[in-house]
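ok so i was messing around last nite and threw this chain in just to see what happens. nothing serious, just curious
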Amino acid sequence: MPQSPVYRCSCPVCRSRKAHPEQAVHRQINLLVSRLDEQQRRWFVALEAGRLGHGGTRRLAMITGLSEHTIRRGRRELATARTGHLPERVRTAGAGRPLAEQQDPRLLHALEQLLATETAGTPMGAAKYKRSSLRMLSAQLRANGHPVSDHTVARLLRQLGYSPKANVRRTEARSSPPERDAQFRQIAAQRDQFHATGDPVISVDSKKKK
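result:
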């Protein structure tokens, strides 16, 4: 069974930059949740919510990313299991959280627009590369009204034929001059102008000789 990505807790404690013992606990909870199937996730999180008592469902929803409806469903299933009638299906027919691009039909187009000005790689290569990191791309998408996680952006990049890794070394990123982005914007503007006039656009990647 393929493992799900580990969810990043969105509670105030984990969003804070100050170290707190609960941060490690929440990471462990989400690590375990990522290793379980859908039914097991519901049951485990429902147990944790019940252990916390009042407000536990809302708190576990914030920690794990599962909806409160899903957690309450898990509690009902556990109550049924105590009577000796275990649910047979892991997932109800036709159930499951819709993909981000299904919930937001303009998401993929918005990502393609961000990538248009920073794509690199050989035309015959198996994968294309981009300058921005997953975190930068997801932050830009959220700022443009498309709430999305880094994991979803990585999946969409692979779908579009891109490598999720940024095509820049950390040492180069730290030493890059402020004019670097301006240069890329100028190149993008010239490319758009050539496209508008029907002229060919040639991309050449080169490396410095050491």
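not much to say yet. The chain has eleven helices and three strands.
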